[in-house]
Amino acid sequence: MPIIEAKNLFFRYAAAEKYAIRNVSLSIRRGEFVLLTGPSGCGKTTLCRCFNGLIPHFHRGVFEGEVWVCGYSVAETPPNKLSKHVGLVFQNPENQLFCLSVEKDVAFGLENMGLPEAEIRRRVEWALRVTGIEELRHRAPHELSGGQQQKAAIASVLAMEPEVVVLDEPTSFLDPRSALELFDLLKRINEDLGVTIVLVEHRLDLCASIAQRVLAMVDGELALDGSPAEVLCGEAIRLFGVGVPKSIRLYQLLLEAGVELEHPPLSAEELADLVRQKICQ
Amino acid sequence: MSLSFLEGLQFRRMDSPIHRLDPRAKFVIALSILGYAMLFTEVIPLIVGFAILLPLVFAAKVFRMWVRTIKGVLVLAILIFAINWLVTPDLAMAVGLALRFVLLVAAFSLFFLTTSPDDLGLALEQSGVPYELTFAFTTAIRFVPVLCREAQTIVDAQRSRGLELERGGLLKRIRNYLPILVPLVVGAIRRSVDLAEAMESRAWGVSEKRTSLYRLKMRGRDYLAILLSAAFFLLAMYVKLLSNQPLLPWLL
């Protein structure tokens, strides 16, 4: 059974005239690392909200079709109940930390769930360790850098031991180095813990290589769905205005010039390796 | 626009015997000094009040911040003095009333400087205040530095577009702040929607009985502090009764 499944999903916000999502059907398997991309305003954020019940319970509007997440129908399960199964990390790290210390923030969801103190302590320690922010535990959010704040937000979601973590452009407030660190963390969470990850991202240069699958949305519809190499090498993605990784672009230019690398490289390192290999031949 | 006056209220994480006291014990200390200040309008007992408070401030290692808070309310104290002096020509009484006000602020300043808002929230929670309220309180404090920074950004942005804040008469100056206030409030409202979304996504209100990572526990030293505060207040009351005056002269 897929862990996320949407069938003919439509959504229109109460105040809007246009549908933000139109006829989206998709299914995501347990343990997959899915990259969701597309130009601004294409409905990525709206789709994320459908995965944890913020739509239709928090943002009202016209909701048609079905979404099933971890066996729960999103239309019938409010977000606070779904949060045990799906964690949502938002774009602005500042607005998802409410408490005066990192530790307390990581404990926030667990306290809401009414877990016993010892269990909260255990999970907080674990989440801080996994995200590598143990030494920041007593800091207040405003004393942290954007990257540290976002790690704290991920820790507070992980502590709830969700099966799926959805991240809505988590690096847009971060510099490239912090972004890379964050992607590395997500990769470990996916591989070591088996958590399904849905990552909404523009910076494909930095994250294309860690995803197993790329979805591209345009104008509220799911336009492309396939492996990173398939989707990113196609002609269609460039027409949507999604920034294709430079390594792929170079691969295509080399191809036009008559040099064929073994496969499309998804990162600069991979490109370097392939070129080296080619030269040695 | 300078926001430095808020610094005096801001808690800094530190370690001292006073910081380690339970917030409830510290609150009782502050209350006992409040009670004490209410008993007297004479200058000498009020100075004695400061003399008792001062060692605590030093023990808490917050002297500089504490002085800054007091400086911040000095204008108000002078105002109280001036008004009282005008109304009653009793100079000693006017000085006493101003001093009493400063002592009150001084006592509660020590409380706020040494109590983390988190602990304060926890103390409220454990005293039976609904979690929604204590959460609103701690979150408000958490966002003070964020909003301050945002206000500064808006001031800079509007200034670079030619807004002159320090120009014109009083009314004009107040009106000058409108282009600052409107984006600040709109931004705060938008932020609150984000916050609500994030709270929903973190199981807000999912369980009837909310638990807590920390619990405050009163220790021996906390009981001792409460006992001493009570004794101090009762002693002051006894002295006051001996001096044969009405118990509560002039409530400020």
Put the structure in a nutshell.
The complex is a heterodimer of chains A (281) and B (252). Chain A is an alpha/beta fold and 281 residues long.
Strand order of the largest sheet of chain A: 6-7-8-3-9-10
Low-confidence stretches of chain B: 1-5
Specify the biggest β-sheet of chain A.
6 strands, mixed
Rounded average pLDDT of chain B = 88
Radius of gyration of chain B: 22 Å
Tally of structural domains of chain B: 2
Residues in β-strands, percent of chain B: under 5%
Instruction: Name the poorly predicted regions of chain A.
Output: none
Tally of strands of chain A: 10
The global form of chain B is flat
* Assembly classification: heterodimer
Helix-and-strand structural type of chain A: alpha/beta
Number of strands of chain B: 0
Largest inter-chain contact set: A-B, 45 and 35 residues
Detailed description of the structure:
- The complex is a heterodimer of chains A (281) and B (252).
- By secondary structure, chain A is an alpha/beta fold.
- Chain A is built from 12 helices and 10 strands.
- Helices cover 41% and strands 21% of the residues of chain A.
- A 6-stranded mixed β-sheet of chain A has the order 6-7-8-3-9-10, sandwiched between helices. Chain A has a 4-stranded antiparallel β-sheet with strand order 2-1-4-5, covered by helices on one side.
- In chain A, helix 4 packs parallel to helix 6.
- The radius of gyration of chain A is 20 Å and the shape is globular.
- The termini of chain A are far apart.
- Chain B is mainly α and 252 residues long.
- In chain B, helix 4 (63-87) packs antiparallel against helix 5.
- Chain B has 2 domains: 1-115 and 217-247, no CATH class; 130-212, no CATH class.
- Classes of the chains: A alpha/beta (281), B mainly alpha (252).
- The A-B interface holds A 52, 54, 57-58, 78-81, 83-84, 87-88, 90, 92, 94-101, 103-104, 107-117, 120-121, 124, 138, 140-142, 156-157, 160 and B 13, 116-118, 135, 138-139, 141-142, 145-146, 149, 191, 194-215.
